[in-house]
């Protein structure tokens, strides 16, 4: 499926559409160049899911955990950009997150691709010539 985000004004509508069509998967691997809006889109997804916490990129923490007020679920937001060795991911106990049944939104998954569950959903965000973004999954 492809979703076009023309501007930040319609990012929440795009996030709602994504959530309506995401299927039953729980692990979503977000691919895209630096600055394409991965964090911004994940923030919109979390807001649409009822997260009331401050949503930021977990660049230095590697993972942020958010609570979803609607159903007391957890959402895990990962940023593996600064990972140097897979041992760092093993040490953080990635399996506990990826196989928890809770939503996992992963930025820079290409750095840990061999650890992703086989059923992880690949989400690609690209920047178009007109500045809009396309989310494809």
Automatic annotation (TrEMBL):
Single GO term (MF): hydrolase activity
NCBIfam families: T6A_YjeE
One GO CC term, this protein: cytoplasm
Pfam family, one: TsaE
Signal peptide interval: none
Keywords: ATP-binding, Cytoplasm, Hydrolase, Magnesium, Metal-binding, Nucleotide-binding, tRNA processing
Compartmental location: Cytoplasm
Protein name per the record: tRNA threonylcarbamoyladenosine biosynthesis protein TsaE
Superkingdom, natural source: Bacteria
Organism: Hoylesella oralis ATCC 33269
Gene3D superfamilies the UniProt entry points to: P-loop containing nucleotide triphosphate hydrolases
Location, primary (coarse class): cytoplasm
Family: Belongs to the TsaE family.
Gene Ontology biological process: tRNA threonylcarbamoyladenosine modification
């Amino acid at each position: 499926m492809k979703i076009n985000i023309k501007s930040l004004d319609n990012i929440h509508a795009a996030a709602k559409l994504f959530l309506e069509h995401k299927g039953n998967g729980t692990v979503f691997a977000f691919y895209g160049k630096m600055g394409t809006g991965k964090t911004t889109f994940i923030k919109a997804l979390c807001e649409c899911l009822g997260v009331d916490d401050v949503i930021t990129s977990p660049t230095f923490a590697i993972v942020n955990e958010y609570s979803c007020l609607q159903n007391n679920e957890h959402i895990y937001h990962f940023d593996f950009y600064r990972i140097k060795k897979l041992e760092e991911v093993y040490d953080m106990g990635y399996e506990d997150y990826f196989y928890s049944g809770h939503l996992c939104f992963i930025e820079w998954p290409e750095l840990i691709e061999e650890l992703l569950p086989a059923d992880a959903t690949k989400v690609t965000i690209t920047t178009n010539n007109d500045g809009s973004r396309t989310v494809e999954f």
